[in-house]
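Chain X:
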Amino acid sequence: MSATSPLTPEQQQQFHHYMKQHNLDSLFNDLTKKLVEKQPLDPIQFMIDELERKDPKNQPRKVVFVLGGPGSGKGTQCARLVEKYKFAHFSAGDLLRAESAKDTETGRMINNYIKEGKIVPGEVTIALLKQAIMGHEDPNTVFLIDGFPREMKQAVDFERQVCFCQFVLFFDCPEQVLEDRLLKRGQTSGRIDDNIESIKKRFQTYINQTMPVIQYFKAFNKVKTIDSSKSVDLVFEDVCKLFD
């Protein structure tokens, strides 16, 4: 049988059944309309590009940046949001700490940055976050990314390389309250950066480099501020009002 031979009645029946089973009728109708409308010079490549755009893994993600000083309750509130709304939660800090535990050159480099309270190079953090986000099976999920971006370049590079954020959830809290929380947490957390020396460095880094990020997004009316000096339950009530 040649490649141009018409389908037999049985093959036509099988074809229509397959199209219906996989909901391909609307897809092919859409492609046909676009071919007629655009009349591309390379129709095969045009259809490939259109199909790639329809691939769920290429769809824009619904990302919310969760920012605030160290100890402001980002992780705690994100965990509650995940439980209530089934959001996906990625902590830049947790991803970096997991990577730093590996006996690799990258792991040792990250470990040194964390000990010094400095910001890990953006390309490392973005690569880890992109892998986590794009690997999620449901592109319609809301992704909470806490502790990121921590500087302007990270914000710009993430939105260029991954996707735009929907808004920034900013947990605002006085520095003294944050310090008291971190010192208390350090008694049991086992984290290498929960000591007074690292805490002071982290505060300075946050003020100098992360606050400008918050101001940047405020200029686009994309910052929603929460007073996180209150109890965990009261803070969560305020946060839920943003999503209900």
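Chain Y:
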Amino acid sequence: MRQTIIHISDLHFHTYPQNFQDCGSKRILGMANLLFRRARQYPLQRAKMLVGQIQNMKWDHLVISGDLTQLSLEAEFALARETLGPLLKDRKRVTIIPGNHDRYVRQNKAKDYYKQHFGEFFGEEEIHVKKLNSDWVIVGWDSAHPNDLFTASGTVRRSTIQATENLLGNLPEKTRFIIVNHYPLTFPVGWKVDHSHELYNLVPVREWMMRYPNIRLYLHGHIHRNWQHRLLRESSPELLLLNSASSTSRIYSGQKSSFHQIDLVGDKVKVTPILLE
């Protein structure tokens, strides 16, 4: 049976802090970025256009691979929840994981605004698991954590890998898996990689994933350039990696895609790039 997934990422809903207490730490840098660049790059109308376009599409599951917000402020999460509301009516059809901007600063558990506003779309376990049908399962990871002032890296915990291994071992051998994580595992040819803005354990995570041929798709964001990459495995299916960031930003010259539609039929995967104009 066909399953259609809509994959969006890095929506960056934004507001400015309303009190001095929320202005400290790394948010000072984020506010400057917002004031001089990102506020113009991410007008709210673009997000509303995205919601309207997805509402008019036929799909079975929505995946958002992190960075709902810019400064991880409660008002930003509330704005994101309100704007995305029409797409979130059935939580069984939605997977949402956090990105580094959603864990922008260190906060106590009482101020985990991602969990308060979107936790129901991940769950309480180490990994998020959603069975699409008898053939395909989505696995969501939370690799985001606060960093120092000029770092935006993440870490896939050992407990996350172990929980995923356990899941792979407990389901039928024919099951195919889609991993959702915020950070990329590959970069375009010639891309200037910034190691302070990637997974700390990128290489071992990528090598681990390549050992499991039933992991067929890796959905992510973080770098604001849509792409489709393929990693070949010896005598087994390739790993397809899709970047849907950023789905709500203004269009840049030559841009061909804002997000992706993924159609699954049996073991076949069809990816359609979609531009939000």
